[in-house]
Amino acid sequence: MSELGLKETMSTMTTLTLCMARHGETDWNAENRIQGQLDIPLNSRGQEQAKALSSVLASMHFDAIYSSDLSRASVTAAAIADQLGLELNINPALRERHYGSFQGLTYAEVGRKTPEGLKRFLARELEYDMEGGESLNTLWSRCVTALGDLARAHPNQTVLVVSHGAVLDTVYRYLVGHALDAPRSVTTPNCALNWMSCRDGAWKLDVWGEVSHVADALDALPE
Questions:
Q1: Cβ neighbours of residue 143 under 8 Å, at least 6 residues apart?
Q2: Which of 82, 110, 167, 172 is close enough to 163 for a disulfide, judged by CB 3.0 to 4.6 Å?
Q3: Catalytic residues
Q4: What residue ranges define each of the domains in the chain, with the CATH number in brackets?
């Protein structure tokens, strides 16, 4: 390829830089109770985490901010949007997985109520929907579609997304090629930052599970 042709090709390349964060803590997180798409609010620690995260991100540049429509995510994201002076975009495609009949229960309670269902869930059966919830295959399609939509909507921009644990785990699997039915290999802490990029449709994981900044910011908050 000629030098001119190379320059022309490079000029048409588009890159999205995407930062995804999980929402702040809720009481149900602390209880290990399954929230799914039930709208559980942030607890006091979660509110502090959101404040700390917004303080950390205030010095960074973002072109747009998106959030799940569930309040634990949208309240976390709103604190950041206020700091950055950006409009918050609400997108239901970013909401948590629907856990069907498991929602509202702890895993111990699920095991007592429906031991066979818990066994199928823990085996990560791809089409198991927990009696009216969302299967892993359906969740995968939703997450991958949402990523593609963001890349097309924001070429050569930097975008922040606040979402949920199952969404983040699915995105991680997509980025690194980790099988959907394999056990989890990473954690998704509340308010951790996860950085990725998409260059002309090809996604790459850059950083996963940044948490030190949140701990530092939380320590700096007044009592």
A1: 167, 170, 171, 174
A2: 167
A3: 23, 96
A4: 16-220 (3.40.50.1240)
